[in-house]
Fold each of these.
Amino acid sequence: MNAEIEKIAINKENALENAELLAELAALSREWAEEGVCPGYYANDAEEYFDKELYIARIEGKTVGYALGHIRVLEEKTSYNAVGEKAFELDELFVTKAFRGRGIASALFRFAENDVRNRVSVIGLTAATDNYKPLLRLYTDELGMRFNHALLVKRTDNTEKENA
């Protein structure tokens, strides 16, 4: 059974008519936060979906995942872009546990990519996870993104002493 993917535009003016969808998105976001695999992730409130590029995956009418991002003009030159280029920044890509492993995350990404393709020069994301191998496999192997850089951290046992 394939997921149906669609783009949804939510803003202050149409939030009431999208109240049911916003509740579903909030439940998915809470599920993600409760999984605890994405350091620093907190559940979204409704306004975080306003005026963004929002893509929904549904199976038999049930929302099972979403992709959320925004388009911006890049102000600094980096190894992968020039000043003034437009970029789509994927802020969140989530599929509920019961529906993982079915290609829904890839389908959401590809749908978003096709939607923004003629409006941006680059697609980027910053990912934080404690389960990085499947994440890298998804983005680099399946979706053709290039690994650009990483921030690796290791906590020391000195944390309590510094906070005292």
Amino acid sequence: MSSDLPYDPEIPDLTEENPSDIDGDIPGAPTDGIPGVDDDCVDPALCAYTEYVEGEEVEDLPATGEDAEGVEADVWDALYGVEDPEMPISIVDLGLIYGVEVTERVDEGVHAEVLMTLTYSGCPARDMLTDEVERAVAGVESVESVDLRLVWSPEWSIEMVTEQGKADLKEFGLSV
């Protein structure tokens, strides 16, 4: 197996007829033989992709921006224009946006901070969605800077989807 990663473990073939014959010693594995379970991360760059920290309690989810005014309302409008890459539904209606805060910074202009989650931490569209959200918010007139914070608490669930989002999902053919 070839890889750009600093390790290249030999992984046993579990499709063999008698898996109990497999030698449990995998180079670099913890003593219990299961890589990634209860072992310390040798290279922090490989482990730092996601930081799991218990977040503050978020009230009033799903967040929709319905009471927003001015630039904050424009930011919400831009976020409504970002759709999930797999389904024709706004990420706001899908319940992925937990909050938007717009502030005026001295000598820096208007700053927007977006709190967002994903349907699960291993979402393959993570980079694509975060880039698209940042571009959409940065494209709002008078917004000079954007911070997008991915949060995992509270975890996303189907209850986060708005009524409009549920209607969109049903129209797409999903049972909600």
